[in-house]
Amino acid sequence: MFALLWLSGCATDPVTGKSAYNLYTLDDDIKMGTQAMAQNVAQMQKARCPINTDSARVAQLNEMTRRISAVTHYPTIPYTVTLFQTNIVNAAAFPGGPMMVFSGLYDPRKGLVRDEDELAAVMAHELAHVNCRHTTRRLSVVTPVVLLVGVGAAVLEAKEQQQWAEILAGGFAVVGALALPAYSRSDEYQADAVGLMYMAKAGYDPRAAPRIWQRAMEQSGKRSGGSGSLTGGFNLFSSHPADQARYEALQKLLPAAMEEYARVRGGYPPGYTPPPGVPMR
Fold first, then answer.
1. Is 90 left (phi over 0), alpha (psi -120 to 50) or beta?
2. 145 in any annotated domain
């Protein structure tokens, strides 16, 4: 049964061009994301959080999403953006296109975003998560294990070993919570890399992406008195790569992204000089 599940879930990933395992269809992603977004909106409404009240910012986010989504691998997905007026410094995406932005992200004092290109870098990163289908790919890894645990628990219950059945099921829940956070480190690095190219292809300056993480390092140092990850900001999960690691990874990818940006915009931005070997545009 599990071998059949594995075979049925293998397909070519348009983002990487390699075989990827996902038991869910793109329609499943959209349905799942729509439901999750509705639940989050309901919770925020219950907490009396203002939603989409800043019409100018909402329009800006919608335009960014339109521009960036047009150059993604799944441009026809029904992407949506919902803005929550709260001091949370974050943005998030659900499978199938719904995205949340919290106004704390661009707060002048505590936020990480200072200009349009930086905000576009965040949106491109979230769009990359959607296109890489990170959530349902990770759920696909868990599903066979859940089935296996369910079968094992059923067998134990049939043998009147209810206590061990509960321990088996409960133990998996704990392990799953610890070992399977929303996004893995590799998911984050991939979303950074893919998002960097998305924003370049959409005509946003890719230098904004590493600039965000440089600022995150600076803010983290102010909070802790030393180097580390910005907690309470982007790094909401312990599995996320450290700010410095993400900054350095993006810096290495920057020349290729800047070349793409120059191709789209007809030239490099003022003040930027491509590294040796890369033609001037």
1. beta
2. no
- Give the contacts of 195 (CB within 8 A, at least 6 positions apart): 121, 124, 125, 126, 127, 128, 209
**Top-confidence residue, 99 or 174:** 99
Number of domains in the chain: 1
pLDDT tens per residue across span 92-120: 999 999 999 999 999 998 899 999 999 99
Q: What is the pLDDT of residue 22?
A: 86
Residue 263, pLDDT > 90, answer: yes
CATH number at residue 59: 3.30.2010
d(CA 171, CA 74): 37
Q: Decide if 41 is inside a domain.
A: yes
pLDDT at 59 exceeding the cut of 90 = yes
* Rounded alpha-carbon distances, angstroms, from residue 55 to 61, 62, 81, 112: 10, 10, 12, 21
Domain-embedded: residue 102? yes
Would residue 103 count as lying in a domain?
A: yes
* Host domain of residue 72: 26-132
Beta bridge partners of 84: 51, 102
Give residue 50's pLDDT.
95
